[in-house]
Give the backbone structure.
Amino acid sequence: MLSLRHIYKTFESGTPSEKKVFTDLSLEVADGDFITIIGSNGAGKSTLFNLIAGSFLTDKGSIILDGENITMTPEHERARAIGRLFQDPLKGTAPGMTIEENLALAAGKGGWLSAIGRDEKKEFRERLALLNMGLEDRMHHPVGLLSGGQRQALTLMMATFNTPKLLLLDEHTAALDPATSEKVMEITNRMVHDNKITCLMITHNMEAALCSGNRTLMMNDGNVVVDVSGEERSRLEVNDLLEMFSKASGNKLDNDRILLGQ
Amino acid sequence: MSLSLLKTALELGLISSITVLALFLSYSMLNVCDLSTDGCFTLGASVGAIVALAGYPYLSIVAAMCAGILSGFITGILQTKMGVDSLLAGIVVNTGLYSVNIAIMGGASLLNMNKTVTVFTKLEDILSGSPVTEYSRLIVVLIAVAFVCIFQHLFLRTRIGLAIRATGNNPDMVRSSSINPVMTTIVGLCVANAFTGLSGCLMAQYQKSANIDIGTGMVTIALASLLIGNVFFLHKSIPVRIAGTLLGSFLFRLVYTVALRFKMPAYMLKLISALIVILAISGPYLKSRMPLIIRAMKVRREERSNA
């Protein structure tokens, strides 16, 4: 589904603050994979997402999504196939526009000059009702009035409105309180499962990293140091994962926000 | 205040309100402060005047709008594709347009249209003899304003309109979505500048002359009107905000006309509009800073009394 081939990326190349993030990174993601990613500070997790989504271009190496070489494709064109959520719930929705208008942008139905149709409004209501947050009765409220959790759930719905080939979740529950975080995670699991979306999720919650998905990557210093899936993964506990990490990378997992469990 | 003075104020206010509506699109919706507005207004005036002088009063409107679109397109390309900062892009285009405008007017800085057939004289002829003759100019202006208002209302509901609003409202969101911010910025500026051109064209035909200074200070005057409208309607729905924008233009003209009656010299218009813009933008800012300033003063006073 997604393959990264020999990716190189250096920031501020040739300056004293030069930072080599990736040297020859390769990664294969199978169709339907739900991969959770953990890593130390500055391991390159978010940079990986930025490269896949096209916020930055790679220095060298290619990115293939569903058989199509997207290495040089601009970000907004990739966005048709790639949904993306950030940690900050404010990043994914337009606060001054209503829920309905935000959804209409995500749905992207009809031509550029068409307005939101009646059928579309009905579909929005039905889909919003699935979130169980009462948003379907607030279609004309500006999104700026919603709570962080509601905004993140809405963003998730917008990102998956037209089932994407790939969904990138960058610690999308980290800024929410534990109860809301759990709820958004539950919605995430449901949406990814029901629509069979291939998904990459960065998390700082070790427990969630093992509970969700079918494969876990641990990153350190621009490399994937642990890659577990299948039966091996299902037997793992948080402690085993930590041990595997220190064995593979030669040092302890150094992430100032890591949550070992709940 | 005499009725005819009020009518003139209303007509002039309505003509400039079209520029205010243009800024509503670029400044309020797209969040781009388009400083090419002055030059574009004059561009509309000069193109409209030349075409009207050539004997095509209706075509002059279309030509002025097309010229505006072209000007907006260049401003948009500069800031999205050529790496020019958005304020600088407006300033550069504005400066360039000065020469372009004089060139369009055939090297002159003033075009006289005293005997030219314009959209205003056209309607006056049509209505001559009927009881509404004296309102013919007002009718022309009203039709234009109504057209722009309805267009904006419908336009901002379309998908491209929503995308333009999102671009101004949350650039982060748009960057990671399938909306191309380059496209929305350029389309937004083209549409806005079409209206600015229309406004300039009507202004020139209304006062029967186009001169190179007709647009000077227009961006500040229009911003002042826009911000006055914002005071009442900032968090309302789009149609209400469009109406608020119109109301802002009226109020601005009203204040100006009243001030003129109190013997304020006409050249003070631009200073007043500059002051209104400053007040409307820094007023809320200073208000939010007020508790901090008061607290700092208190702390200082206590320290002094302790010493």
